[in-house]
Write a structure and sequence with these properties.
heterodimer; A: Outer Surface Protein A, domain 3; 3-stranded antiparallel sheet; 36% helix; B: 10-stranded mixed sheet
Chain lengths: 101, 368
């Protein structure tokens, strides 16, 4: 897996880092746990929804399309927030793109 | 105070074996009535570890007995790693050779190894832990440090090591340069209950231990930890007295909120019994192989009752009525209450500030 922090775009097919553990704590939040270093990040329910759709097959464009179906009033600002979140997760090594071999 | 119950426990204590190479006089683990001290075979633990991973448990704490006495210990640790968890290990240190330390390091998942050390020299440490136990404990710390495994120490305070606490602190924080260590004291659980006054701190000794530790805490700020025992009591008692003097109760206190483990933590005995906490080994919630962890966590009535304990007001207990500290008190450990009173749903008398003040007054002393 190869992370790309700065060049996230809507055509990317991102996948979650399989070494991380997503713990759903309750209806409002989840913990993203890295067993290799013990680091824990808190995700809200929207972030969990995004996380669960980053399967390496769907493009970010498709992921956002699904979010538009789920959430009313999903606008350009929401799209920017999704990209910011994905960028942030990529920066943590939590998501990345599969390298073509 | 409102506690949220996690969907699954974040941490699980695994008492991997009831065997131990030491016979510490104050052992809290052994001699609980009705507790079976048998060990599960490897396969049963491996199945549980897989289940913990599937339940997204983040970390396990390995203890015993002496967990490192299990011949299959690294098979179990490998399974913990494969199941995407981290681990802590509690040990008396004697099985920790350079090779063991290196193997722990290579797992890449060890949060910390806690070694029990009660004194700066053999004659102090071995008063309770037995002859020949000091040198291996010290060597273990050095092996772990050499292998760059995070290591800490637990000092159990008793009548025989209060005067040695400054030397112990110098050994741990200056000579060995540990980042920190923790302290507690002998609790009214297991073997120690059999010895009563011989082992427990008298009010005078307890006050002296508090003063010595608070002085050391001031000298080494943030490096001496305590969630129970004299230092923790010193800090809590002063907070309670300040709250009373200011006429302001401590938010969330005034109920039986001294035990928060049951909201995010569970334990498993060496014989495979699920229990709420290592301090409550008599409260069996189910057995490995018969009940799934997730079902025990969600459905065990005993666990639910312990969670509901936090709603019980201290004002409902005769012994707390009229107490100046009632609204600042937590009722302390459920394990202590069960051991001393036979009822976990009562305040535990062993860390009661009013009782302590009364005991000190009888000896012509007072809490500064």
């Amino acid at each position: 897996m190869h992370n790309n922090l700065l060049k996230i775009d809507l055509d990317m097919r991102l996948a979650v880092n399989p070494n991380l553990v997503l713990r759903i704590e309750d209806d409002d939040c989840a913990l993203l746990f890295d067993p290799d270093n013990g680091r824990v990040e808190i995700l809200n329910c929207t972030a969990v929804e995004i996380w669960q759709q980053l399967d390496g097959k769907r493009s970010l464009h498709e992921v956002i399309g699904r979010l538009e179906e789920i959430y009313d009033g999903f606008d350009e600002d929401a799209t920017r927030q999704v990209l910011a979140l994905v960028n942030s997760l990529a920066g943590l090594g939590a998501v990345g793109v599969w390298e073509q071999t | 105070m409102s506690h949220k119950v996690m969907r699954t426990p974040r941490m699980v204590d695994l008492e991997l074996t009831s065997r131990c190479n030491l016979s510490c006089r104050y052992c809290y683990y052994l001699d609980h009535q009705g507790v079976s001290y048998q060990d599960l075979p490897t396969e049963r633990w491996l199945a549980l570890i897989r289940e913990l991973g599937e339940s997204k448990v983040m970390s396990v704490c390995l203890s015993g007995g002496e967990a490192l006495l299990r011949e299959d210990i690294f098979t179990l640790i490998d399974a913990i790693v494969t199941s995407q968890m981290r681990f802590d290990l509690l040990s008396n240190g004697s099985p920790v050779t350079a090779e063991v330390a290196q193997r722990l390091k290579l797992t890449g998942r060890c949060n910390c190894v806690q070694i029990s050390l009660d004194g700066s020299r053999a004659e102090v440490h071995e008063v309770m832990r037995g002859e020949g136990s000091f040198a291996p404990a010290l060597a273990a710390i050095r092996h772990l440090q050499a292998a760059e495994v995070p290591v800490t120490v637990r000092v159990t305070v008793h009548a025989g090591n209060i005067d040695d606490l400054p030397a112990t602190t110098r050994l741990l924080l200056e000579e060995l340069n540990l980042p920190s260590f923790s302290t507690n004291s002998i609790s009214s659980l297991g073997s120690s209950a059999k010895y009563d006054d011989e082992l427990f701190l008298s009010p005078e000794q307890r006050l002296r231990a508090m003063q010595v530790l608070s002085g050391l805490d001031a000298r080494y700020p943030g490096r001496i930890e305590a969630s129970a025992g004299p230092l923790a009591e010193w800090q809590m008692f002063h907070e309670m007295r300040r709250a009373h003097q200011n006429g302001q109760p401590i938010p969330g206190h005034g109920h039986l909120v001294g035990c928060g483990c049951v909201f995010d933590r569970l334990a498993v005995r060496a014989d495979g019994a699920y229990i709420p906490c290592v301090m409550l080994p008599q409260m069996v919630l189910g057995m490995i192989g018969e009940s799934r962890l997730i079902d025990v966590w969600r459905d065990a009535k005993v666990l639910d009752d312990l969670r509901e304990r936090t709603k019980i007001s201290l004002g409902s207990f005769e012994e707390c009525r009229g107490c100046d500290y009632q609204l600042s008190c937590t009722g302390n450990c459920a394990g202590g209450a069960l051991s001393l009173l036979g009822d976990a749903n009562r305040p535990s008398p062993d860390a009661c500030l009013r009782s302590f003040e009364r005991d000190l007054a009888k000896a012509g002393l007072s809490l500064p």
